[in-house]
Amino acid sequence: MNEFEPLQPPSHPAPPPQVSPARRIEEMGGDPNFMSSLARGLAVIDAFHERKRQLTIAQISHRTAIPRAAVRRCLHTLVKLGYVCCDGRTYTLLPKVLTLGHAYLSSTPLAVAAQPFLDRLSEQLREACSLATLEGDEVLYLACTATAQRFLSVEIRVGTRLPAYCTSLGQVLLAALDEACLDEYLAGATLAARTSRTLCEPQALRERLAEVRAQGWCFIDQELEAGLRSIAVPVHDAEGRVLAAMSVSGHAARVSRAELEMRYLPALQAASRELSAQLLLR
To answer: Residue 26: its pLDDT value, please?
Structure first.
């Protein structure tokens, strides 16, 4: 296959369903200090995303597996508190929801410090640049550039979550886990094929992560989505631990693996070192 030829989506069966929010909440039921009502409210908020901004009670119940009556009470509370509005049938998040994440973004130096480095790198390479951390089985984007990623079906913005196993950012972060944490991740993660190149076997992914750990960077070729290539490196804290990962992404028809490794990687590594050094001074 020509390396510039985008892949076609594979004809794999649908991946097994992930554990629903309701199931996770139920599993916490034995903890006397766990507030199930709060957990349900957060799950309702999390049911909204950029592709479906207006949802009915039935749709939210389907997405979360939380009973409709409980979803209705959660939404009623969120409306009263100003986090959600209702047009009579569908519900929409209001800007006040942003305050839930603002405390974190404003209190951590990482996102604030990273943005100038990402902007400079994006201007230099003319590609999309991002910074993310690992949260559960996903990468959580903390900062990104305004460069449009029109070739992606998902719009990357602050707060976007993507599977860790098939992203360059995620593989860098997974490679930094100790063996016990990696074993736990591989035992519970659903490794579904996103394209014909996605690593879906735990042992194959483990071997890839060992390579990433040894070389200190990760290259992904159309494993998340057809046409997407990306390269990522770790960002370290004062103790040398991997704090986050930084990446550059481009379309396979425009950027080859050789260019990513020979031109993009050195610039990305330099930006990561500078960011890590700056974080030491804060």
So the answer is: 86
For residue 271, what are the contacts with CB-CB under 8 A and spacing of at least 6?
117, 118, 120, 121, 246
- Total-model pTM: 0.70
| pLDDT tens-place string over residues 221-235 | 999 999 899 999 999
pLDDT in tens, 120-158: 999 999 999 999 999 889 999 999 986 545 556 667 888
| DSSP structure class, residue 30 | T
Are 246 and 232 within 8 A, CB to CB?
Answer: yes
- Average pLDDT of the chain to the nearest whole number: 85
Nearest by Cα to 177 from 143, 200, 205, 142: 205
Give dist(CA 70, CA 108) in Å, integer.
Answer: 34
Single-letter code of the amino acid located at 269: Q
- Sign of the torsion formed by the C-alpha atoms of 272, 146, 119 and 226: positive
Would you say 263 and 269 are in contact if contact means Cβ atoms under 8 Å apart?
Answer: no
What b/e readout covers 234-268, taking b as 16+ CB neighbours within 10 angstroms? Answer: bbbeeeeebbbbbbbbbbbeebbeeebeeebbeeb
